[in-house]
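seq as requested:
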Amino acid sequence: MDFTNYGKGLAEDAGKLLAESFGRQGDSAMLKEHFGITLKESGQTLATNTGAYVDLLAGTLYTAAIEKIDKILALVTINEDLKNKGGFGAIQIPKLTPTIAYEVSEGAVVNYFDEGVGSITVTCKKIVAGTSITWEILKRGMNDFAKYVLKNAADSIARKLAGDILSGLVAGSGHSATTGSLTFANVLEAEKDVNTATYSNGVAYGFIADAIVISSTYWSTFRLDEDVKAGLYYATAIPGQPINPAAMPLMFGNLEIIVTPFLTSAHAIVLEKGRNILVKESDLETYEGQIPGRLYDREVVALLSYAMGILYPKSISYISA
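struct tokens:
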């Protein structure tokens, strides 16, 4: 791959490089084995319009970024109204609040309640990760190392996105922290907080906690608890059949267990998935240019814009020290 042709743009050349290497062993084998990337769109060849490879680069980096945090992304609902030009940097998101239904006798007057629909407003922020492609890498055709550098950009986006989602969930919780570290009893207490949450008019939201996110720091201690070990099982496991942990999430009661190093603001989060929102203003975009002060080096900057929207604070509970 000739990286010296700046006329076509480094982003385009990098996209071609990725596409060529992916095609040599098929989309899935090489991507999964070497990069942990799944290329969702196949069929790209060098005979295709070369401009497609700029989009291919952005799409591939984004897929690489989100694949390792797909379970964290599943904790929230993805809203793409801003990405589809449904706003101008800020968006007002409606949220339903429970009102009271009751039986009335014939001819009775119905009492009306103000509760029903509320809203929150969120403003997206952009995050960027810059990759340095030096003259030496370009001149010497160090293709494998160039791919490694681009993969690092995707990893940095993944770390930032996952950390922001989890920190946002903790900060947005409508319950006081359950303290005393990550224990069997504290998990049950946090789960109860979510399942029994009520609105200001006394009506139950009806949340059912279905996930617990555990910091990697505290997971090993938690799973050694004898009561915890007795309560762990793999979802959909069939007696006598082999267990595939990748396809069967580990469960604790009704809670799917998600262990991650990106949770740093609490020991664990208990919540009902999908109640709160990640607002995306863009997919991952890539920009190419010259690095200031380094005349012969180039950069590819990856950018993603998003915001967390906490619609239902009481659907989230967390455990701390």
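Confidence is low (pLDDT under 50) at residues 1-8, 21-53.
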